[in-house]
Amino acid sequence: MTSMLLSPPDLAKYPFTKESRDYIKGLDLKVDELVNPDYGEVLNRAEQRVEEALLGGEVKWRGERYYEIEALSYPIAIMLVASIDDDFLGRRYALAEAKRAYSLFRRERDPERLLEIAGSAFDWRAQDLASDANQSYDYTLHFVDYLRNASRIRSDPWKLVNRLMIKGMVFLKKDEFARLLSEEVQKHVHATITSSPKINLPPLLLQRITRISQILGERREQMRWEELPEKTMVAAYPPCIKRLYDALLAGRHLSHVGRFSLTSFLLNVGVDTEELIRVYTSVSDFDERLTRYQTEHIAGKKGSGTKYLPPNCDTLKTHGLCPGPDEVCRTIRHPLSYYRTKVRLIRRGRAVAERA
Ligand code: SF4
Question: Using a 6 Å CB cutoff, which residues line ligand 1?
């Protein structure tokens, strides 16, 4: 690996690198010191990072001018998220930091810079091919490092059999290298959050945590359903489907069965194919072409012309996708029966309320 190339603004851009962590450690900042008004801007930015993740799904880069605040606000934002100890928030924050990193990686002009980051932060075995003018690729990456990250992207071009590989090194374009690196960032940020020790925070930080928790409470419900058309009665969805949809929004990996169940359920309760593709591709990293193909296939618009039904409760239980039945679940054997029953109950309840 070449010598250090990361400048102070780079440490703020890429706060997950070892150099950045060492820089922060070198400051020897104590939590109690954060109440000092000198850190007001840093705390504001830390809180804003979490808000950006919740509201927009991506943490923004504010520019090199603010690099000190950017660098310091990252570990504090992690501390705030870890203190709230909410799985949905943790995953959403990790995905939002990964999106920020991805857009910064893509803007890097110096190929060495990405190599340095990949080596420093994640011990990647990679080389750049910039000196070879005939290459249509920019980097090579050891297949183990490749697989560890590409396996999280469910799209044919990422399968190892579809890649050029020579002597265990996979050939990649810059954009692909950046994409894989951002997968690594997401895992790293999430692991940092989940392994953060629980500490007693001063009241000033607790106030910020309360504010974030409020946004989380409002946003979680809003995000759960805002993208779906109103004609389906979302309050009637069964627990298994609600859980799958939450996982999708949090950027979590859905198993093949999980994704099929969610897609087929939503299509069967009246969600439009285009609407569904839009939801999938806007909230996560799904490949649009593949998502369109699969969704249209399940909707019966491709292939056999059969519109698929979601699996029954027994199958969902076998695959660990049933979070535990509620009262309505005990009377049915299929998520769509749950939906029909619950719609009736809700309508009856409304009618009673209107008569009262
Ligand atoms: S019992 Fe059936 S409908 Fe209810 S949560 Fe489990 S799988 Fe879903």
Answer: 238-240, 313, 316, 322-323, 325, 329, 335, 338
Out of 1.10.20, 1.20.930, 2.60.40, 2.40.30, the CATH code matching 8-212 is 1.20.930
Spatial separation of the C-alpha atoms in residues 118 and 230, rounded to whole Å: 44
Strands (E), the chain: 126-128, 139-142, 165-166, 169-172
For residue 239, the Cα-to-chain-centroid distance in whole angstroms is 21
pTM: 0.68
Listed by start position, the domains of the chain span 8-212, 227-355
Neighbouring residues of 238: CB distance < 8 A, sequence distance ≥ 6: 328, 329, 335, 338, 339, 342
- Quick one: residue 31, left, alpha or beta (phi over 0 = left, psi -120 to 50 = alpha)? alpha
Q: Compute, in angstroms, the gap from residue 324 CA to the centroid of ligand 1.
A: 7
Q: How far apart are CA 59 and CA 48, in angstroms?
A: 9
Per-residue pLDDT of the chain (356 residues), as tens digits, is 434 567 888 889 999 998 888 888 888 888 888 888 889 999 999 999 999 998 888 899 988 888 889 999 999 999 999 999 888 889 889 989 999 999 999 999 888 889 989 998 999 999 998 777 667 899 999 999 999 999 877 667 888 999 999 999 999 999 999 999 999 999 999 999 999 888 888 888 899 999 999 998 887 766 655 555 556 788 899 999 999 988 887 777 788 999 999 999 999 998 888 888 877 776 656 677 788 888 999 988 887 778 899 999 999 999 999 998 899 999 999 999 999 899 888 888 765 665 55
Going from the Cα of 233 to the center of ligand 1, the distance in angstroms, rounded, reads: 17
Distance (Å) from CA 319 to ligand 1 centroid? 12
